[in-house]
Amino acid sequence: MSWVNYFSDLPTSGIFRQSASSHVQPVSAFSTAAAAGTLPAVSLVDPSFMKDQTINGSVFETDEHPPNDIRAGQYFVSQIVNAVRNSPSWSDSIIFITYDEHGGFYDHVAPAAAQQGGALNPDGINPGQCEDLSNPPASEQPGGGAQCGISQSDAAAICPGFTATGSYPANCANFNQLGFRVPFIAVSPFSKPHYVSHTVGDHTSLLALIEKRFFSLAGGGGTRPHLTARDQYAATLEDMFDFNKVPSRNTSVPAAPLPSASDPGC
Question: What is the pTM of this model?
Answer without folding.
Answer: 0.90
